[in-house]
Amino acid sequence: MFDYFKGGNMGKTLTEKILEDHLVVGELKKGEEIGIRIDQTLTQDSTGTMAYMQLEALGTDQVETDRSVAYIDHNMLQEGPNNMDDHRYIQSVAKKHGVIFSRPGNGICHQVNIERYGIPGQTLLGSDSHTPTGGGLGMLAIGAGGLDVAVAMAGGEYYITAPKIVKVELTGKLREGVSSKDVILEVLRQCTVKGGVNKVFEYTGEGVKTLTVPERATITNMGAELGATTSIFPSDEQTLKFLKAQGREEDFRELKADDDAEYDEVVKVDLSTLEPLVACPHSPDNVKTVKELEGMAIDQVAIGSCTNSSYLDMMKVASILKGKQVAENIELVIAPGSRQVLTMLAANGALADMLDAGARILESGCGPCIGMGQSPNSGGVSLRTFNRNFKGRSGTSDAQVYLLSPETAAVSAIEGVLTSPLGKVDVADIEMPESFHINDNAAFAPAENGEEVEVITGPNIKPFPLSKPMGENLEGKVLIKVEDNITTDHIMPSHAGLLPYRSNIPYLADYCLTPCDEDFPKRAKENGGGFIVGGSNYGQGSSREHAALAPVYLGIRGVLAKSFARIHQNNLINNGILPMVFVNPEDYDKISQDDDLQITEVKDGINAGEFVVENITTGEEYPVTIDASQRQKEMLLSGGLINKLRKSA
Ligand code: MIC
Ligand code: SF4
Hints:
By secondary structure, the chain is an alpha/beta fold. It folds into 3 domains: 2-273, Aconitase, domain 3; 277-415, Aconitase, domain 3 (2-Layer Sandwich); 474-648, Aconitase, domain 4 (Alpha-Beta Barrel), CATH 3.20.19.
């Protein structure tokens, strides 16, 4: 029945097998919308408050997933009461509705999920774009907006475009000093930040078995930067070894693609010839070899984030730092990814080696990755083991952020300039432990009697805005025109000053798109809303739904762009904003800020999936398409998913 791509009795990819297992709506035909059952969900605090408010708005009593976990990891500076108010809200709402609560300090959601909760072959939906980290464990793990995760918790299916499957064939073995971070940087170099839209990257080949689960997780984590739906590794001996060491052998099941599986595209990486790489400012696909830039002056080195904060990464860093001294001109900060990792480093002395070398140790959380502290100096050069180097994300608007491996980062911190670790490190003996330190007492099971739990809210937690149902005509000004690859960090910036307001859209809206134009929110308010014009890959990066909710609040009814990033496009549709794609990309050049646009008979246009936008100012017409399924068109007509559900209730 499930003739996925090529029909008949062809061998299947691992992705096809998991999709088949979870298919609830539609047919597995490439390019068509399918609905899949979600086994597990995760939320983190910066997207979680909204997601749980939406869960409450859906009227859900107990979540219907096998397992849902609410993590606190992003927003932990607690400067003023707002952060902890959010934590309290999430803790109480999780306890009430059947969600495990992972308290601040327990670790970064993706790291802890791999360690304690992920199960090969299951589906995981997370309100964070790096949820694909779970692919390192053989999960089909997808990032989404908070509302989609709320719906999944309520037992609803999650919709994706049945993806193309890219085979990433790994051969050979990494040399000492070259790391799995260099593998994903190489894939990004080859495929770019737009290369993965509606694709799943499936890792195969002889080289796969040389990589441990944490190394695989680094690759699937940063696969998010390809714009991919997700990335996945098979579940094999390495997976068993990892789960055993986590005391979770019973969660293991072997999973792999059939030998004769057919793929839509092939990417090849020879691990043995790979060399240390670095993604230069301000895009994760702006990749060069470390050799090309060796000797570059630097100011800061930051090690951690959900990409590179595993026990193995930290042990390599500690061994490089042991007995050495961080250079005088460098600030070195290290954030181990979870309490499990930090406890083990403390117990085996590696933490002392880091401290002795002069590192600053941060608590287990996202920290500097999202600009929650440790922003570089003015114009500073920061080497980071993270996954995103978008302009301004570090909290310093003119900083230059380079993304690289823990080995390159640690060696450079000692040398004081960007330095290749090749020939300079002795980390080959660092192996996965037989058993990890297991202590789950920072994660709390939900209440037996949820109805007795009172949900606690703080004054900063404001209701989320809803769009209006679509009228007959849409009119408005072009309020801003932005270039290609605009990220959700541009649309809704997040740093130590703004992250505490993730539950307060009216406040955040005053910062919407301000990295592109400071006056945008004011202009939007003065004009009572209007349109945004974007280039290609509009909305790449974070899953934050705030990048749709703040525009809703400002009265934005549509975005015209050359193309959209997957999660952001879904977030726009879920919240009733029209994502319109230029049929003729050159029309982008013809529109200017302040032009008056008009769309007549917009409802018919949405149903048809194509219509014309008139530019009243210039007299031109721009044909556009709406790449939306029937289900999504209904949402757009109703003014978003919540309005649609309310209407049909
Ligand atoms: C990010 O890395 O940009 C974040 C912060 O984790 C986001 C989520 C958010 O914006 O809260 C993500 O990747 O989805
Ligand atoms: Fe946290 Fe950074 Fe990972 Fe996002 S990318 S989840 S901010 S560590």
